[in-house]
């Protein structure tokens, strides 16, 4: 599900909890809730799943390279002794 659709769904759920006398302004409330939620999420400095997966792959490759280099250093040290 698209994050914006999820945000809309959450805003609608929250606005449905508003007492009936205030539900006449439900559309305005949904809009304000959505804006508030978007603002709060932006401040949290979150990344998308795609960005997270890309960085995880980069980290995995870096770890593999580090392990190879550590083995190479051990081999070179063994030859110099």
UniProtKB/TrEMBL annotation:
It is found in: Cytoplasm. The keyword Cytoplasm applies. Belongs to the UbiK family. It comes from Leucothrix pacifica. One of its GO terms (biological process) is ubiquinone biosynthetic process. InterPro entries: UbiK. Pathway: Cofactor biosynthesis; ubiquinone biosynthesis. Keywords: Cytoplasm, Ubiquinone biosynthesis. Pfam families: BMFP. This is Ubiquinone biosynthesis accessory factor UbiK. One of its GO terms (cellular component) is cytosol. Required for efficient ubiquinone (coenzyme Q) biosynthesis. UbiK is probably an accessory factor of Ubi enzymes and facilitates ubiquinone biosynthesis by acting as an assembly factor, a targeting factor, or both. Its main location: cytoplasm. HAMAP family: UbiK.
């Amino acid at each position: 599900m698209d994050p914006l659709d999820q945000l809309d769904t959450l805003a609608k759920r929250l606005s449905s909890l508003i007492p009936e006398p205030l539900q006449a302004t439900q559309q305005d409330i949904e809009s304000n809730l959505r804006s508030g939620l978007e603002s709060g999420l932006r401040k949290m400095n979150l990344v998308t799943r795609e960005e997270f997966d890309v960085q995880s792959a980069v980290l995995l490759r870096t770890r593999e390279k580090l392990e190879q280099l550590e083995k190479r250093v051990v081999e070179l040290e063994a030859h110099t002794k």
